[in-house]
Automatic annotation (TrEMBL):
Keywords: Cytoplasm, GTP-binding, Hydrolase, Microtubule, Motor protein, Nucleotide-binding. GO terms for cellular component: membrane; microtubule; phragmoplast. GO terms for molecular function: GTP binding; GTPase activity; microtubule binding. InterPro entries: Dynamin, Dynamin_GTPase, Dynamin_GTPase_CS, Dynamin_N, Dynamin_stalk, G_DYNAMIN_dom, GED, GED_dom. This is Dynamin-type G domain-containing protein. It is found in: Cytoplasm, Cytoskeleton, Phragmoplast. Pfam families: Dynamin_M, Dynamin_N, GED. Coiled coil: none annotated. Residues 517-609 form the GED domain. SUPFAM superfamilies: P-loop containing nucleoside triphosphate hydrolases.
Length: 609
């Protein structure tokens, strides 16, 4: 069982070291889940004397006004031998054997956190005391409740202390040790009043009655100690502390405990309660109760820790890795993020992710439909055919076939294919740009750095613009090639009999009749359709080669080249992470370290059992 209290002690120390004080924050808190005993009482209630009696040492600061201004997590460790010493968590490896120096260090450490302004702080001081004369126990000494501010303190100090005390004791895992003086009306007890607010059924509250020996003659505290005046689920314990005169005379704790035992044993009103009165009984009772509470909470604590570790890891993964400080590390980080983006972009093109199929739709639907919609009626209208044929003949009519007329008619038709070809290039360009947007949004690491996100996007768009311009040149060249050199075999296969035309015996004027010109138009249209069929296959190949293939191969090549010449300040600007995100990541990493440490500690105790 002693291992259980030691376990909670370790976890509490880890919480404080890693910034978990149980305060309201955006981070999960382990502190609030740990069972603890908080000591609550008004000023001059004898709270400090109770703690010193439990420990058996004078070690707490004393004085008028508010002396305890920070929570003191007091961890008692029972050890073998006869040595007694104390250690502070903020002074590792330094042992205090003189407990007057412990008192001074508590006061000094309080001032380091709060200054000498008599303000309060919720950041706890951790003090461990090792002695053969103590039981394994952890207590949290909270500032004494007060009704008025003393000189040098703000008027809000009264409410501030009450809020701090309430923030500790309202937690369902907190055991409340409510210290009240017997020589005052219990109805006015600050400790009982605030305990009742957070624990109305008295299930978590232990009542401690001090100054029983200072009650008026003819009165006693039996009704309170037996639970008749104010009933709690847990028993009341009466203690007799050293008087101020005893403290001034340096009466030791052993003598004080002996006198306390004699008081309850010899006083008729309390003789029947003597076996469960006194600071020694209080310490043993609290230790036993704390052990049982810890044992009952362990399964729930393990479940909470496992769940929280998973949540913290998920959020840390979402926030990304911390930024390197050196130029090489920054450049590597940028390059890795760019490669991730580039990989996602390729997955869109290759069909691993959606989007790339839109390019095929351009080739299979949009481009062929655009070619089919081309109207060659104007170019091949009778009057236009006659005009072009006659213009091509010049002053000397053609003898056999109007070759120059054919060329002009074919060229005038093929030039119109440039429009659909350019539109196909632009359509694929728009799709490639759309996929850049998608890949940027799906590259989680780019969300971490807004400036890098913008620069990567701009660099990708600039590359795509260059690829589009090159693709447009090559694609239009394919159209121009068809215009510059006709496929001779097509014309060689045409019939040349009298009925089909080409008989030179006809007059010049017969050669320009409607039937003859109509036949020329039909031949030109057949040739143009053949060229359209060819371009329907070759233009997509050109577009893929110049745009899609290049986008997969070298989308960010220019950006990478330019990156290598940048100085560390310029690289730092690219990695301009939000300071709030950086702070959040640091805090999450600390909290994750805490929970993993807690998990290891709890597992070790569980296995040992």
């Amino acid at each position: 069982m002693e291992n259980l209290i030691s376990l909670v002690n370790k976890l509490q120390r880890a919480c404080t070291a890693l910034g978990d004080h149980g305060e309201e924050s955006a981070l999960p808190t382990l502190w609030d889940s740990l069972p603890a005993i908080a000591v609550v009482g008004g000023q001059s209630s004898g709270k400090s004397s109770v703690l010193e009696s439990v420990v058996g040492k004078d070690f707490l600061p004393r004085g008028s006004g508010i002396v305890t201004r920070r929570p003191l997590v007091l961890q008692l460790h029972r050890i073998d031998g006869d040595r007694e010493y104390a250690e502070f968590m903020h002074l590792p490896r330094k042992r205090f054997t003189d407990f007057s120096l412990v008192r001074k260090e508590i006061a000094d450490e309080t001032d380091r956190e709060t200054g000498r302004s008599k303000q309060i702080s919720s950041v706890p001081i951790h003090l461990s005391i090792y002695s053969p004369y103590v039981v394994n126990l952890t207590l949290i000494d909270l500032p004494g409740l007060t009704k008025v501010a003393v000189e040098g303190q703000p008027d809000s100090i009264v409410q501030d202390i009450e809020n701090m005390v309430r923030s500790f004791i309202e937690k369902p895992n907190c055991i409340i040790l409510a210290v009240s003086p017997a020589n005052q009306d219990l109805a006015t007890s600050d400790a009982i009043k605030i305990s009742r607010e957070v624990d109305p059924k008295g299930e978590r509250t232990f009542g401690v009655l001090t100054k029983i020996d200072l009650m008026d003659k003819g009165t006693d505290a039996v009704d309170i100690l037996e639970g008749r005046s104010y009933r709690l689920q847990q028993p009341w314990v009466g203690v007799v502390n050293r008087s101020q005169q005893d403290i001034n005379k340096n009466v030791d704790m052993i003598a004080a405990r002996r006198r306390e035992h004699e008081y309850f044993s010899t006083t008729p009103e309390y003789k029947h309660l003597a076996h469960r009165m006194g600071s020694e009984h209080l310490a043993k009772m609290l230790s036993k109760h704390l052990e049982s509470v810890i044992k009952s909470r362990i399964p729930g604590l393990q479940s909470l820790i496992t769940k929280t570790i998973a949540e913290l890891e998920t959020e840390l993964n979402r926030l990304g890795k911390p930024i390197a400080t050196d130029a090489g590390g920054k450049l590597y980080t940028i390059m890795e993020i760019c490669r991730m983006f580039d990989g996602i972009y390729k997955e869109h093109l290759d069909g691993v992710r959606p989007g790339g199929e839109k390019i095929y739709r351009v080739f299979d639907n949009q481009f062929p439909v655009a070619i089919k919609r081309l109207q060659f009626d104007k170019q091949l209208a009778m009057e236009n055919v006659r005009k072009l044929i006659m213009e091509a003949d010049g002053y000397q009519p053609h003898l056999i076939a109007p070759e120059q007329g054919y060329r002009r008619l074919i060229e005038s038709c093929l030039v119109s294919i440039r429009g659909p070809a350019e539109a196909a290039v632009d359509a694929v360009h728009a799709i490639l740009k759309e996929l850049v947007h998608k890949a940027i949004n799906e590259t989680h690491e780019l969300k971490q750095f807004p400036t890098l996100r913008v620069e990567v996007g701009n660099a990708a768009f600039e590359s795509l613009d260059r690829m589009r311009d090159e693709s447009k040149k090559n694609t239009l060249k394919l159209v121009d090639m068809e215009c510059s050199y006709l496929t001779v075999d097509f014309f060689r296969k045409l019939p040349q009999d009298v009925e089909k035309g080409g008989n030179p015996s006809h007059s010049i004027f017969d050669r320009y009749n409607d039937s003859y010109l109509r036949r020329i138009g039909t031949t030109v249209l057949a040739y143009v359709n053949m060229v359209c069929s060819t371009l329907r296959n070759s233009i997509p190949k050109s577009i893929v080669y110049c745009q899609v293939r290049e986008a997969k191969r070298s989308l960010l090549d220019h950006f990478f080249t330019e990156l290598g010449a940048r100085e560390i300040k310029q690289l730092s600007k690219l990695l301009d992470e939000d300071p709030a995100v950086m702070e959040r990541r640091t805090n999450l990493a600390k909290r994750l370290e805490l929970y993993r440490s807690a998990q290891a500690e709890i597992d070790a105790v569980a296995w040992s059992k």
